[in-house]
Amino acid sequence: MKNSVFLIFSSLIFFYSSCAQDPENQVDDVTNTPFQAELLIDEMQIPWGMTFLPDGSMLVTEKSGEIIHFKNGTKTQIEGVPKVYARGQGGLLDIEAHPNYSENGWIYISYASEQGDEKGGNTALMRAKLQGNSLVDSEVLYKATPNTTKGQHFGSRIVFDNDGYLFLSIGERGDRDTNPQDITRDGGKIYRFNADGSIPKDNPFVNESGAKTAIYSYGHRNPQGLAKHPETGEIWDNEHGPRGGDEINIVKPGANYGWPVITYGINYSGTPITDETEKEGMEQPIHYWLPSIAPSGMAFVSTDTYKGYKGSILVGSLKFQYLERLVLDGNKVAKREKLMPEIGRVRDVKEGPDGLIYVAVEGKGIYKLVPNN
Amino acid sequence: MVIRVFPLVILFFCIGTVSIFGQEADLEESMLRGEMVYMDFCVTCHLEDGKGVANTFPPLAQSDYLKNNREASIRGIKYGQQGEMVVNGVTYNNVMAPMGLDDSEIADVMNYILNSWGNWSDHFVTTDEVARVEK
What we know:
The complex is a heterodimer of chains A (373) and B (135). Chain A has 373 residues and is mostly beta strands. Chain A has helices at residues 2-19, 101-104; strands at 28-29, 35-41, 47-52, 58-62, 66-71, 74-77, 92-97, 106-113, 122-131, 134-143, 158-160, 166-170, 189-193, 215-218, 222-228, 235-240, 246-250, 287-289, 295-300, 313-317, 322-329, 332-339, 346-351, 357-361, 365-371.
């Protein structure tokens, strides 16, 4: 009897584990990379986001509340930066120039803000223009509510799609049982705006009573990577799971990504959150990481600058302190590689307009990946 | 004489016991609040068991650094920490951002980490002690 119970149990385990992805959860060490990493901007503490301007200069955020303008090898601190709620994971977060920056001059910034009556903070989105060394014409476009003194999950990545819509992620602010599944509340969502902050008329929940109409998709935990697929134009995200269960998803209008109803992760204590990993009406990830790498930043390689890299995804690992390359076979992850091992906590990765990859590392600064000849 | 002193002895004894129990109760309450702070701000890197992540995030459980560097530990939580540090013989080189905690929250979380996972400290961290630690 005992044996048969054991057999049933172990065959169940085998059955479930064979359903789940498995080879993808191996990350390979790489001896030869088609690049050398060169430290371009040094002495930064937590470079959270970066963007490129048409004159070849860069704007980089420091989480503590500064913006650095890096031009011709010199760092300048920008004035007129919004006051941030620097607590826990909150602070000055992402920065993104409008795709038509040379015509309209708009720069978009996400940050943790105390705006509002309640104690604490929540994620805000603003835009401004750079005049000399100052931000001017600042406008707050969105402020998530309510404020909370919780330290987690501000999300905050910004990306534009090919139609000029702005996508912003906001994490569930440490309140997983209240926020992510409720479209009348902020948090645990990816939002879509027009470039002036207004809400597109065809956003999925514009006709739902009580809904936050800026919401584009929900059931997210803490997305800290957003990137536009260079060929399909779709927006992809990566997000932190709890212990295990970090995910890559393709962001679709009105879709529910399941947190915390379904997840491949468990609590930090090792206790289960749910035993469900899939459910009708909830999306399955393209990929999930076990164990968690703590993904932050996301970029597609769209050119042949680095031999063999075109079409792959780059993601920073905060936990294991390397840059991960995911090789795709269609929408499936076929292979994972560990680049820049032990470099430090990789916070952001971007492909610049020059086709080069830039990597933001905590305690170090911004690396440029210089291709081998 | 004996009769006069005896009640005094009893009185001192009682005061002593009350203050010891009082302090223990304070510590317990502070640790409970500290655990909430820990689960919010610290657990993602240092983990529930306080063991951290090998070579990346130093352990707090059975940590010689924490035991021997009380003021520097408070300073690290209060103002952030960057650069090399040696914990239990392993060199770590990482960044911990200041968490934006107020002094009472720092005292609570210090009491929690100083008295969890087999750690033990014979004196209580107060808000005043945290307030006195400068950058």
